[in-house]
């Protein structure tokens, strides 16, 4: 049986891409480097990692890690639509948004919308959009950034969505993962 991994946690866009080619759920890895190294070390048979998006182009973390270490071969490509949104705790309005916790590529893909809709908000990078959503949704979070997060559609049914949070859609983009 083939074991695949992905740049995680569950709910990331790479997890979404993995689920289009394999329904086993896959093995999450905390970074692109860890995911690629897991293939090199034989812990998994392959991984899904982001390599390109429609706004920012190549994902440098992936490209750098592909050339760092034993050679790997790209065996497939998955192109998925990506939707972003601002998700906040209950009772928060868009005017209340003072900070955005998200992945750097997501912030870059949404920079025009953020600059127009919440120009004074501070953007802080997180490891993934799904991880940012989880952090923001947790009332016990010790994060200094407690309000909004951009998140993939899969996380909408998560705790963030079930606590009565609000969301504002951001224009769709695409991401290419290999």
Q: Decide which structural class fits the backbone.
A: alpha/beta
**Low confidence ranges:** 143-167, 172-178
Radius of gyration: 16 Å
Quickly count the helices.
7
Strand order of the largest sheet: 5-4-10-6-9
Main sheet characteristics: 5 strands, antiparallel
Distance between the termini: 20 Å
Q: From N to C, what is the helix and strand string?
A: EHEHEEEHEEHHEHEHE
As a percent range, the share of strand residues is 25-35%
Mean pLDDT: 77
Helical content class: 25-40%
Shape: elongated
Name the descriptors.
28% strand; elongated; disordered C terminus; 29% helix; 178 residues; 5-stranded antiparallel β-sheet; 3-stranded parallel β-sheet; alpha/beta; 7 helices
Short description:
The protein is an alpha/beta fold and 178 residues long.
Describe this structure in words.
There is one protein chain. This protein has helices at about 15-20, 30-40, 60-65, 105-110, 110-115, 130-135, 160, and strands at about 5, 25-30, 45-50, 50-55, 55-60, 80-90, 100, 120-125, 150, 165-175. It is α/β, with parallel strands linked by helices and about 180 residues long. The strands form three sheets. Strands 5-4-10-6-9 form a five-stranded antiparallel β-sheet. The protein has a three-stranded parallel β-sheet with strand order 2-1-3. Strands 7-8 form a two-stranded parallel ribbon. The model is unreliable at about 145-165 and about 170-178 (pLDDT under 50).
């Amino acid at each position: 049986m083939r074991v695949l991994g992905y740049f995680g946690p569950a709910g990331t866009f790479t997890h979404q891409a993995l689920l289009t080619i394999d329904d086993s759920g896959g093995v999450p890895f905390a970074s692109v480097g860890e995911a690629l190294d897991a293939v090199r070390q034989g812990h998994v048979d392959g991984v899904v990692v982001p390599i390109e998006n429609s706004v920012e182009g190549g994902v440098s973390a992936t490209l750098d890690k592909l050339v760092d270490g034993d050679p790997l071969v790209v065996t497939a490509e998955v192109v998925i639509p990506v939707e972003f949104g601002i998700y906040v705790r209950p009772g928060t309005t868009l005017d209340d948004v003072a900070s955005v916790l998200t992945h750097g590529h997501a912030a870059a893909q949404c920079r025009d919308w953020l600059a127009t809709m919440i120009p004074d908000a501070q953007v802080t990078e997180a490891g993934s959009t799904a991880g940012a959503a989880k952090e923001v949704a947790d009332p016990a979070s010790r994060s200094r950034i407690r309000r909004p997060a951009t998140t993939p559609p899969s996380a909408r049914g998560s705790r963030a969505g079930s606590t009565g949070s609000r969301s504002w859609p951001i224009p769709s983009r695409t991401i290419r993962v290999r």
